[in-house]
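Supplementary Methods, section 5.1.

A reviewer requested that the exact input to the structure prediction be made available. We therefore reproduce it here, unchanged from the version used in the analyses.
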Amino acid sequence: APAIVGPTTGKRAKISKELMASLQNQRSRLSMVVLGHVDAGKSTLMGQVLLQLGHVQKRTITKYQKQAAKSSFALAWVMDEDDSERERGVTMDIGTKFAKTPTHDLTILDAPGHADFVPAMITGAASADVGLLVVAATPGEFEAGFEPSDSHHRGGQTREHIILSRGLGVSQLLVAVNKLDAADPSWSRGRFEEIRGKVLPFLQANGFKSHRVRFVPVSGLTGANVKELPTSSDVAALKEWYDGPTLLDAIDGFLPANRKVEEPMRIIVSDLFPEGKGITAKGRCVQGICSVGDQVLVLPVGDVATIGRIEHGKAQSASNPYGFSKDESGGDEKEGAERGKVAVAGDSVDIYLTGIDIARIHPGNVLSHVDLDLRPAVKKKFRASLMVMDDLAVPIIRGAQALLHMHSIDTPAVVSKLICTKNRDGTVKRQKPRVLAGGASASVEITLDQKISNRNMPTAVPWAALCYDEVAIPILPANRKIEEPMRIIVSDLFPEGKGITAKGRCVQGICSVGDQVLVLPVGDVATIGRIEHGKAQSA
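The structure derived from this sequence is encoded token-by-token as follows.
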């Protein structure tokens, strides 16, 4: 069962014992983003996955083979449903499908691999719990996708997708070494180990834990080792050395995600369309819970709407594509009907809203609780930790203009202040740097053209990226643990009058003039007589 995490803010949502018990017993729900360089075979592999899981009919693939310019495009068309995508043979936007494994109900987010569509990839990665990285094993193709940038050309998207996905909160990653049947020689163990030896150190250097990363050899076109290892002689070379899981077994082995069900409700809107007298909003519930009949606040505009209907995405069955069947939730029909009226953290849903004009709500808006104490902050300026890509050609200076991509929002931004650069352990390396070069980790202040709802910054996971000089830079809000017990680390001392002035940094909590503080490790008690904040001088 998925882990249910209790509140961290002290503001609890009201959840009945019956519903909580139902949530504890429900199947795990995961969102999986599919990453990789353009033409690595992501859409084809996902089409093969849906076909072998029984979510796509074989005759549908046959029809696509007749219609496509190349028969090999047929499986990719399962994910690439837009006419322009099919005509170009390139994924341009996030393709969403639903699938069921023995353990998980999966939302598959097929991200584009072309450099021109990085914002769409950011939207998918920010909505994902886990990731599937697809790398092509054919000669020269892996190198083209994984090589770093230099002064002459921009490198492949594999590295950028890895850095962005980790920065946007993906912690479990499955690496599918695709097209290994087309390597030289076919199903070469040496080629598999070569790719693994290059990719794994890069993953570890960017924050992925080795025990949360797995490598699986597959062929998306033929389906070899996707669901099972064929008995044909074509894969005899693979059987000689590989005894690990199939791709679907490895996907089923993902750990369930922790869900903050008792946190204040937040739903991020990704798409909208009018329906009858109301609006249907597509989105993902990132924390909390809501149900039919609840009133929600649309931020940042502040309008109130009412939930009239909640629809959950479900995996289609090839034998029953229209879904006319009894409840598949794992419980009885009544329990499934009740669960269908509720959106819980981790659910991708369509919500029918009434009482609001469609001109007042946009993709990227946040639906929250109407209570003042349970709504997120709406800000135009915030501090954030920022990781600068190694291939950044133009250094970042104060006043640099960029584009902020936050879930479904694209808005102009200005780096209004360079606060400090940081070491890998998070300690301050240099205060008030003049520039940020490639590879730097820094704390900055970002100012936007418009106010946005930032969910709940003190407890938010990584959530956004900043595009500057055609390079996407993952950022996350600075974590200010104001509600934690007060801690001030002393960095310098000097006597002053009858007391002492201590220079230092408050790393968590809060204190004020007149408070008594304990000096550790000696254990003496002192009283705060004055607090002075550092200020920028004016010329």
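The chain has eleven helices and 27 strands. These observations are discussed further in the main text.
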